[in-house]
Amino acid sequence: MSQLQYFLALVAGGLSAAALAYSFVTPFEQALLLKAFLALGFLSLIRFFVPLGLWADGAFALLGAVAVLTSLGAFAPPLPFFWMAVVVAWLFAWLFVERLSKSLAPRLSDNAGLGLLVPVVFGAALLVIWEVVTRGANVPPVLLPAPSAIGAQLANSAPILWADFVQTFIKSVLPGFAIGCLSGLVVAILVDRSPFLKAGLLPIGNFMSALPIIGIAPIMVMWFGFDWQSKAAVVVAMTFFPMLVNTVAGLNASSSIERDLMRTYAADYWQTLLKLRLPAAGPFIFNALKINSTLALIGAIVAEFFGTPVVGMGFRISTGVGRLAIDLVWAEIAVAAIAGSAFYGVIALIERGVTFWHPSVRGGRA
Amino acid sequence: MDTVRGAKSVTRTGPIIVVLLAMLVVWYAAAIGMNAPWQTTLNTRAGLADVPFTDFALQTWAQDRPVLPAPHQVLGEIWNATVALELTSRRSLAYHGWITLSSTLLGFVLGTTLGVALAVFIVHNEAANRSLMPWIIASQTIPILAIAPMVVVGLGSVGITGTVPRALISMYLSFFPVVVGMVKGLRSPESIQLDLMHTYDASPWQTFWKLRWPAAMPMLFASMKVGIAISLVGAVVSELSNAAGGGLGVRLLTGSYNGQTIQIWAALFIAAALAAILVMIVGAAERMVNARMGARPA
What we know:
The structure holds 2 protein chains of 2 kinds. Chain A is mostly helical. Chain A has 15 helices and no strands. In chain A, helix 1 packs antiparallel against helix 4 (80-104), helix 2 packs antiparallel against helix 3 and helix 13 runs antiparallel to helix 14 (326-354). Chain B has helices spanning 2-45, 53-60, 71-82, 93-124, 126-139, 148-157, 163-186, 191-199, 204-239, 248-258, 261-293. Chain B has 2 domains: 2-68; 93-293, MetI-like (MetI-like fold), CATH 1.10.3720.10. The chains are: A mainly alpha, B mainly alpha.
């Protein structure tokens, strides 16, 4: 074990002992699981004489999470030893992750399943701490609702969330994304034929990518009305420039030796474009698609802050904030997060299929 | 030598100027087209018939609330709202611009510091790398900007108001590109270079300051450029939730409620200029650092 691991194990065991001693001030039957966990944590100090496997630490962390969650309602307000138990459970999770990643480190690729466990443990620990802190410390729900409350709201208001999802994602984001990316691609191919236009448009396109284009949202709402058309227009404007800049760069990605080869085949412009240059631009185009997938969702939601019919993710978020219905807002954010990640994931999957030849994909890491 | 360089810069800026001029022409033409229906209504109401085209065009470029204001109207509004007004006036764009700029800068500094610190931690600790990196990458696919108004209202309810909540949004947004870029940059030294440091008997501290940190500079500046642009967006969007707080976002919002298109465009231009200047400052700092480090000019 490394120095850090010794330290973590020592603190976890010592803190369990202190918390266990403290817990005797309460009646014995109260929060029995929590006390059992603390006793086991104290016993884990035995590792300094008999080695304990890393899975034992994983089991301790899991037991600690369950014990802490089940004894949340046992005392109100929670006694200090409850918070010490939370810290102990977290220390065990850290120790487990630390030991697991040390044992994984030499073999990076051939244990993908175990490698996935580390971020999952981290995410789960974060959720547990969020739940425990918000409910245990009575954080006002306006500031941060507990994950369980958000989950309940997610299940309760599924029809509303679905209607918002259709309005924002299906009606605004997807058409805007398609139009913006396609027009960016077409303009890039047209511009590519003229070095003069390329020299003129490319710096401007680069510059535009850095501007807060989202600010045109109120103008688009005025021009195209409150419904999804104005949101799609904002999305078009936001996605156009990244696509233009990336495609132009990608069209120059094929090497001159490859272009010479196409010339010796007597390939005309279109053949060279379709069979060499566009495929070679693939990684750049997909890079733009990935950037745009995030931008598009942000654009549509923020544009809804400037005026919508009474449906849509941005509408729900802004009115929910006004009515202090923060559970619903967080549920909406969870939907947006899932939609955004899924959108990105689908594009990444397509990328792996289309640009299978690229080193970044062949190496197994996209 | 100088003449060659001059000729080169002409060939580089020439096309940009031509394209910009073309965009200006298109803009004026579009302003005629888009403002024409309303101008025709106005003219029929006023009993004007057969207005010559040049007069009609001038009329469309001088409306009070045009669908698309002409560029000179926007520039005029910017002039009126900055130079011609006192700085402390509530209608001054300089006042609102300063509100936005201060939360942008505060958020950017906080975000960059936090991002660099986290990247250093991730590079030196395998457990942190494995548990944090997937979440950091996944969180970039989430429309974080959407929660901006909620964070501002939530923090406001516990008494934290003013620049700080808005700066927190900017911090949150600028933090991600910096972490991802810096992790890449700090890892960019090849193993042969790390081995050389090893043969010098360099401590981890020396390896960090003399090899990893300088090697990460290009990535740091590249991600800082992205970070400062996105902090500005974060600052503008987080202002939308509190119309009393001021800032360019509020100008956009009130402009859209009152149909003041010229005001919207003026705020938009100021925001764009701010973004451009901030990115340029980061670029200048990059060139200065590169020169100090003796990097070859690209």
